[in-house]
Each structure stands twice: as C-alpha cells, then as structure tokens.
Give the backbone structure.
Amino acid sequence: MRVVLEANARPGVHFDILSNPEFLAEGSAIHDLLYPDRVLIGSRPTESAQRATELLSKLYSSWIPPERILTTSLWSSELSKLAANAMLAQRISSINALSAICEATGADIEEVALACGMDKRIGDRFLKASVGFGGSCFKKDVSNLVYLSESLHLYEVADYWRQVGHIIYGAEYRLLR
C-alpha cells in the first residue's frame, strides 16, 4: 500500500501507513467492535508514524481501556491478524479431524470436546465439530500464510498451513498451491 501511495503522492503531501486489523466475528461484530479483546495498531518506526499511532490510540481510548490497545510494528500487526485466524482455523480443523476418528471408533465428539475443553490450557471455544469454518476470513488468512511462507521459501511451513485448510476444504484447497 505504501509503495502505491508514494508513487501517486503529490509533492508536499505526507502520509503514514497504520495497520489496524479488525477482529470481528460473524454474528457478534457490533459487540466485538464495542468490547474488543484488543485493538492492534501497527506502524513504521518513524517519528511521524508514532504520532499517527498516538492519535489513533487516543481515538480508541475514548471507549477502549488503554491496556487493550496494543501498538506494534506494521508486520507484527499484519501477521497477528493472519495468525489469530489461522490458529482458530487450525483449532476447528483439529476438532473436525478428531470427529472423523470418533466416527470410526464410535466415540462421541461432543464428549471428547467437553473433556478437552475442560482443560484450562485449551478452553472450550471453537471445539464444535462441523462442516467447516464460517465466513471468509479463516480460509483467506490461512491462504495468505501459505502464500507468504512460499514467498519466503518456507515450504514446510506453507505445507503445514495448507494442510490446516485441506482438512476443511479437501481437494478444493489443494488447488491453491
């Protein structure tokens, strides 16, 4: 984005790029906006970008507690969004893979999920087996991690995230290679 803006900027016009990803879930977007777990603001390490970050933080602090406003680098902000959705997709893929084992063995996936969810290190969220993940963000963000990993020549990492998507989407996901 920065490259495009710089290439088209008028003389004397200065701008900064901030990354401010949303973490809204389908069905609870308004609640998530009003009461977010965190607000993430990423910027470049320049004085003007830091001022822009402070201004955006001040805007958010009118309804978000300051301890929930996290400032990071641009890349950390962007990767945090991808990572959060990819980890949730991984969790959903895991419970669906376990569901297949339950069907083959006669175990009850809801009982297995309940038992696992009672482990405080795991928790009970995103442990409902289903046909896949809802919305477009999980698939898009997992695909972005596959693409980014391949671009960085991290092929085993790309294969790992591709497999997370493949558990849900099957052969359709393999076409994203």
Observations:
- The mean pLDDT is 88.
- The longest helix spans residues 74-105.
